Amino acid sequence: MKILALATAAALAVVSFSAEAHGPTRRKISESVEINAPADKVWAVVGNFQDMSWLPPVEKTEGTGGNDAKATRTLTLKGGATVVEELSKYSAEKKSYSYRIDKVDVKTLPVNDYSSTIEVEDAGGKSKVTWKGAFYRGYMNNDPPPELNDENSEKAVRGLYRTGLDALKAKVEKGS
Q: How far apart are CA 74 and CA 60, in angstroms?
């Protein structure tokens, strides 16, 4: 019995040590906004993968492939940084698309292996827009520097989503 207890304690120690030593874990963020406009009107603004003019940090969007799977876009941000993204799934009927970041400097957005979905839902004459993403922090090894740790990666993505959704709401509700 004593040997079994020692073996169990040793196994638990190995499991807990390896759980801490495996590196970063995938983070998931979801932000939503209600917009006082029909879903079709909101989708007309947000539904074109090749147009991110509604997102304040974006100065210019260039891309190929329209809204077809594997379409690409390069976002040039204010200040000159770029983000390269690829569309993985698009449904005009469901008012939803999913994409991933293929290339971004972690100083611009401190993430790795980032994928995201934007959805517009009818909410009884209004709309609910949800922007959700999954990613790893900007530093993929153990002991990340503070600017590339889990908390700062989550803060950056959440801030991006809030900025974008709030700007989308303002743009659609003003009718511009």
A: 8
Contacts of 34 (CB under 8 A, 6+ apart): 123, 126, 127, 128, 169
Angle, CA of 118, 124 and 128, to the nearest 5°:
20
Do 83 and 103 meet the contact criterion of CB atoms below 8 Å apart?
yes
What is the CB neighbour count within 10 angstroms for residue 154?
Answer: 17
Give the count of beta carbons closer than 10 Å to the beta carbon of residue 167: 16
* Number of neighbours of residue 142 by Cβ within 10 angstroms: 10
pTM: 0.85
**CB-based contact 84:101 (threshold 8 Å):** yes
pLDDT digits (tens, 9 = 90+) for 122-175: 999 999 999 999 999 999 999 999 999 999 999 999 999 999 999 999 999 998
